[in-house]
Amino acid sequence: MESTSEPHLSVRPILPVHVVGIAATEFVTEHDAMLDELVFDVVYRALREAGLRKQDLGLSVSASMDVLDGRSISSGLTNAASGGYLSDAFRVEGDAGVAIVSAAEAIASGDVEVAVAVGVHNPETTGDAMRRGRFLEQVSNLAFDPHFDRPVGLTANTAYGLHAARVLAVSRMRAEGFAALAASEISRSAGLDRSVRRRGATAQDVLDSVPVAWPLHELMLPAHSAGAVAVVLASPARAGRCVGRDAKLTGLGHSTGGYTWTGEWLADPGAATRRATRAALATSGASARDVALAEVSAPTPHLHQPLVDALGIDANVTVNPSGGMRSNFPGLANGGLRLLEVVERIGELPSGSIALSHSLDTITGGVAEDATVIAVEAA
Amino acid sequence: MTSPTASQAGEAIIRRSGSDGVAASPSRPATQEVNWNLRYDIHLGATWSRFMDGLRQRKLLANSCASCSRVFVPPQAYCESCFEPTAEWLELPAEGTLEVYTVAWHGFTGGPTPPYAIGGIRLDGASTLLMHHVVGVDFDSESDPKDALPFGTRVRAVWAEERVGHVLDISHFEPAS
Ligand SMILES: [Zn+2]
Predict the structure, then answer these.
(1) Domain presence at residue A111
(2) Are residues A216 and A116 in the same domain?
(3) Using an 8 Å Cβ cutoff, are A325 and A334 in contact?
(4) Which of A108, B2, B35, B132 is 20 to 30 A from B27 via CA?
(5) Count of domains in chain B?
């Protein structure tokens, strides 16, 4: 399928938005908590870190998904916990990256001084990994259209399998190479606090792990966890009076992809990320040459290089010191976790350089994905 | 996060996460089963109704965009990239090329029985991929499925005996030779 020409991009540089607090829950297979308890926990601690109170919030944006939450309009439960009671709040039915971009845009536009974005992910099911996996795949199947793709059993994992099978057929890299990439991410992060895969792995371990959707095995796929992440953002003037993190968001990009029949998700899976990257760099006034660190959300090792290319970063850039999605993937809270990983390392970057935090929603695998890219600098 | 919750019997169940960030407690969290058994009658609209009617008559109907000349199966009411209404309808042969497929080794609640193969099929004359079940795949997990069924294989639609205007009126695709 021919790729369409790059669409016109209408963006202008924005004023930086400061990160003044971030808090995350522990990342576990299943939290024994109500969703609002998880949201309250992280928003409360992120505000405390910044030295702010609920009354300082001009906007709360949450990210979750009703069908995972088992509640219609689950934001009715979590709005108050996000600080939205008798305030301004809305919910994004998708990845936390979109919530962070939305909250940051409200500050960059001058609408509010302080905002919080919070992603919460604790799929309302219980039991072992197999049972939870079946539930997540059922929910994913429901996200495909009911007339064509849902009846034939498409899910996130099968969509990733289709992409990986195509890559194996056309690329010079063999299955062992992709397994080695997955193993290096798992092993790199095995000792880190936020990793939910606590043991290192070899390429052979990856190939010997449970086959999920040919040619993908369990250890090639994201390390699913449950948890919540809250990010408190402030205008430069307000951040000057806050304690807390020394990072600022200088570029914001977001894009959505197409649906199954275009085949773009197979032939050019970086399309949405590439558009989001262009927007993030254009709003930040930086270029791809300034990037020194990137947290890349590649759900499979077969998507790693297409997404790295879409971000326009070269071999000198440090990619996924956290281990990325193969270390920890808290579902819809992923956008918050990727930003946390970047913010915690921002002080180590050479001066004048930037970092990129990239996230995707994965409800339908690489199909119709929502990509966000956020440019981050030391404050 | 550690949170006490009460079971229906009023007995407190507390599950503690380990200090290393991994759930450590062997006790089962307290949950209550909830079901959402909603029945939907989802509107097909004129474009997809016409396609589904075609399936009943063993016909694969496509439409095209006058601006970019792409031919869509499933048909589309408008072209999403040109942002123009689609125009011409045409019938495509029930044959095409199997461009890619995967094997789902695990099922999900309410889904097909695993293992099953899903393929992306480019019908002759179509610009798009139709996703459907494919037979002829070797389900031996030790071998490369492409040995038995290479990508690029010519495939044809196998029609269901009873057709009701549903995508599964095509039972599956099979190798054409
Ligand atoms: Zn067109």
Answers:
(1) yes
(2) no
(3) yes
(4) B35
(5) 1
Write the residue in A41, A135, A161 that is nearest to B1 by C-beta: A41
Question: Which residue shows structure tokens 């209550």?
Answer: B32
Range of the domain at B165: 45-175
- Asked if the Cβ–Cβ distance from B120 to A26 is below 8 Å, we say no
One-letter identity of residue A125: T
How wide is the angle at C-alpha A78 spanned by C-alphas A150 and A276, nearest 5°?
60
What does the pLDDT look like over A294-353, one tens digit per residue? Answer: 999 999 999 999 999 999 999 899 999 999 999 999 999 999 999 999 999 999 999 999
Position A5 scores a pLDDT of 55
Contact A213 B3 (CB under 8 A): no
The count of domains in chain A is: 3
The 10 Å Cβ neighbour count of residue A54 is 17
Report helix, strand or coil for A7: coil
Q: Tell me if A173 is assigned to some domain.
A: yes
Per-residue pLDDT of chain B (177 residues; tens, 9 = 90+): 333 333 333 333 333 343 344 444 456 789 999 988 899 999 999 999 999 999 999 999 999 999 999 999 999 999 998 999 998 999 999 999 999 999 999 989 889 999 999 999 999 999 999 999 999 998 887 788 988 999 999 999 999 999 999 999 999 999 997
Q: Do B118 and A166 touch (CB under 8 A)?
A: no
Domain shared by A234 and A113, yes or no = yes
Within this chain, do residues A235 and A110 fall inside the same structural domain, yes or no? yes
How far, in Å, CA of A201 to CA of B136, rounded?
Answer: 34
User: Can you tell me the ipTM of this complex?
Assistant: 0.92
- Write the pLDDT tens digit of every residue in A89-113: 999 999 999 999 999 999 999 999 9
Query: Which string of DSSP letters, residue by residue, matches A44-91?
Result: HHHHHHHT--GGG-SEEEEE--HHHHTSTTTHHHHTGGGT-TTS-EEE
Residue A374 and residue A269 in one domain: yes
Residue type, A324: G
Residues A229 and A198 in one domain: no
Q: Which residues of A touch B15 (CB under 8 A)?
A: 32
Range of the domain at A45: 17-125+225-239
Tokens coding A326: 């193969």
B115 within a domain of the structure (yes/no): yes
Please state the pTM of the whole predicted model.
0.93
Q: Is residue A189 part of a domain?
A: yes
- List for chain A the helix, strand, coil content (%; round to 5): 40, 20, 40
DSSP class of residue A119?
E
φ/ψ of A344, rounded to 5, equals -70, -15
* Cα-to-centroid distance, A265 and ligand 1 (Å): 18
